[in-house]
Structure formats: C-alpha cells, structure tokens
Design brief:
Layout lengths: L2 H11 L23 E5 L4 H6 L6 H12 L8 E4 L13 H18 L3 E5 L1 H7 L5 H4 L3 E4 L2 E6 L2 H6 L4 H8 L2 H14 L12
Parallel strand pairs: 1-2, 1-3, 3-5
Antiparallel strand pairs: 4-5
Length: 200
Amino acid sequence: MSALSDINQEIARCQLCAIARTRTRAVPGEGPEDAEIMFVGEAPGWHEDQQGRPFVGPAGKYLEQLLALIGLKREQVYIANVIKTRPPGNRDPLPSEIANCRPWLERQIEIIRPRMIVTLGRYSMAMFFPGKTISKIHGTAQKRDGVIYFAMYHPAAALHQQSLRPAIETDMRQIPALLAEVKTMAETEAPVQQLSMFED
C-alpha cells in the first residue's frame, strides 16, 4: 500500500471535528503520487461527500474544462482540499477544522512533492498566502523552497459569477509557462529574481 493510501485510511477514521459525525464519506484527495501540480480547494461539497472524491460536482466539471485548456486531464494532477470533510450545509470551514486538517494536507504535500501548488479559493489561498486578498493576488505566483505557489479563484466562483470566467481561464493558461520556468530553474539553480511572472 502507498503512503497516500495510508493517509487516506487515517483520514477516513479521523474524528477530531464534530463534522466527522455528519459526513457520508471523507474526501482525502486523489491523483498520482508523483504529480507535478497539486490543486488545493476549500472543502468537499454534497457530490464529493457522496462519492468520497474531490471536485466531482459542477465545480469539478469546470475544473476539468480548465485543465483541458492547458492540455491536462485530472488523472495527471493531484486534487485535494484544505479540509477533508463536508461542512454541514456547505458552510465555510471553521478555523478549528482547518487547523485539524492541516497536518493531512502537509503530509500529502511531503509525499507528492509537487513542483507547483495551485490554490483554489480564499481558504486555500489563506493557507499559502497569509494576509492576502484573492481579488488582488489571483494569477500571481511565489516560489518558496523550490515550489511554485499560484493563486486562483475557486472554479465554483465562476459558476456564481460568470464575469469571473475570463480571469480564471487567463490565470489557468499561465500554469504551463510557470511550471516550465521552475523546471528550468531547478536545473540551473538560477536566482528567484529571474522569474519574470513572480511577485514577492
């Protein structure tokens, strides 16, 4: 059994939060253990709770369309959420729930060692870009410890506000170039300042 499978089983048994008692299934995440890109959303919704898989509802369908824009399929990336259990009524995650689930996400990142982590939505963004506002930093990236962190709106935002679609799709189209740039940097050990698309 793989290390990710072990974590998935631990998550399924976790009872740290009260919401564990209301879930149908835990939603640990899915994708290859050697994925170069990891997408981190916020919390499972109704569809995800039913299937135990992330991003399988309407927002997930849109995420698959976004991946297709850059020639990827969901099977090629790792997809997870900040918290692994659906909050009742799809309410926002509580700080305690985010804190309790954080070690799971950190362990997933340690195992996968992605070159790029794409945050989807404000709760995911807050974990990797603390103190920032998504309307200001979406489409921008930071490189820390050899990993690119790239902020995007959550795909569900475009379902509620059609006006956000162009911005989300423009941001998505940056991913291949950023990934190629960080690969080149890893090979040459070039300084961070050479990353023209990055912000401090």
